[in-house]
């Protein structure tokens, strides 16, 4: 396990994923990043996007519309609002989330940041469905 | 002595009550397992979130610019109490225990001449609190339309609370719910939501973690986003605990009811048999004495 990081993905409903991996690609709020072993301790937010956990030649891909990431001592904890396996990319749930984001965008009073985040959700879900 | 017919009816009525309580017990047991599982599954998330926030809290040095949700608005005048209960009865002391705990707290606040505001969640708390505290209840939230409480419901309540907070309508927010300990024991809890109370971990551990974190964006931004989420998570966790407690409490209550019904049936049956024998004996005596007199 010496050259691995431990990835744990938790949602309010369950512990969705818990495995040793080589690296993880996340879409942080200020840009995508890939976390390898011995990364500096870090706390950041996620925007909508894929999370790719790479272990050897394998890669597991997930999708979420947002969450929080904490990395310390080679342990990566990702707290997600929602969680989709690659098999669920076409599910109804995602369509609902997209509609939700569209509804929020139609509200004139939201901040620029929220507009950006909601647009991101729509774009990313469109990408997945394409 | 009661008539035979009366006893017969009584026995059959207790028997059908027993059937109902037995069925309810089994349903509660099945639901309990699921509710318990849900509560346990949710625990890692809230624990992680708590640990992140406590790390952040330690790194915030300037208390004046820190988010209000973390440090409160330095007043202690208006208290908001959120009481979580169930919508259904027949679950032993479940709702009463929460309400009792809440009432003690209400009295304390009112005695200190502070302002009290209450949000009741679930029908039973409303029923129990409205008689005495009706003028303090500012909102009633029903759970009737959902079988299993979703994160969305917790979010809805959180939004309401945060709305009130940004309008400075209260200073301190406390959540009342039942913590699930085991099937026979549920502990009513009062948990302070705003300002955030986080159990302090041992100093050494926090110090070691604290210094090296890199934040993206900076600490205060992260806190401002995380704290509302934390409240939603805590309310959700409280809901799940509450649900497990409700089913556990119902299961015990129904188990007791079934046993009591069994005892009652045994007693009534003895009574019934005695009465029947007495009637037979009486008839025999009448026949014999009638024959003798001939």
Q: What is the element layout, followed by pairings?
A:
The complex is a heterodimer of chains A (130) and B (294).
Chain A lengths: L4 E6 L4 E7 L1 E6 L2 E5 L6 E5 L2 E7 L2 E7 L2 E6 L2 E6 L3 E2 L6 H15 L5 H18 L1
Chain B lengths: L3 H56 L8 H4 L6 E7 L9 H18 L3 E7 L1 H11 L3 E5 L9 H16 L5 E9 L5 E9 L8 H8 L3 E3 L2 H74 L2
Parallel strand pairs in B: 1-2, 1-4, 2-3
Antiparallel strand pairs in B: 4-5
Helix pairs in contact in B: 1-6, 1-7, 3-4, 5-7
Strand content of chain A: 35-45%
Give me the secondary-structure category of chain A.
alpha+beta
Describe the oligomeric state of these chains in a short phrase. Answer: heterodimer
Helical fraction of chain B: 55-70%
| Radius of gyration of chain B (Å) | 28 Å
Rounded mean pLDDT of chain A is 85
> How are the strands of the largest sheet of chain B arranged?
3-2-1-4-5
Structural class of chain B: alpha/beta
Q: Count of helical segments of chain B?
A: 7
Unreliable stretches covering 5 or more consecutive residues of chain B: 201-208
Descriptive notes:
The complex is a heterodimer of chains A (130) and B (294). With 130 residues, chain A is of the alpha+beta class. Chain A has two helices and ten strands. In chain A, strands 2-1-9-8-5 form a five-stranded mixed sheet, with no helix packed on it. In chain A, strands 4-3-6-7-10 form a five-stranded antiparallel sheet. In chain A, strand 1 and strand 2 form a beta hairpin. The termini of chain A are far apart. The model of chain A has no long low-confidence stretch (mean pLDDT 85). Chain B has 294 residues and is of the alpha/beta class. Chain B is 64% helix and 14% strand. Chain B is elongated, with a radius of gyration of 28 Å. About 3% of the residues of chain B have low confidence. Chain B has seven helices and six strands. A five-stranded mixed sheet of chain B has the order 3-2-1-4-5, with helices on both faces. At the A-B interface, strand 5 and strand 8 of A face helix 1, strand 6 and helix 7 of B.
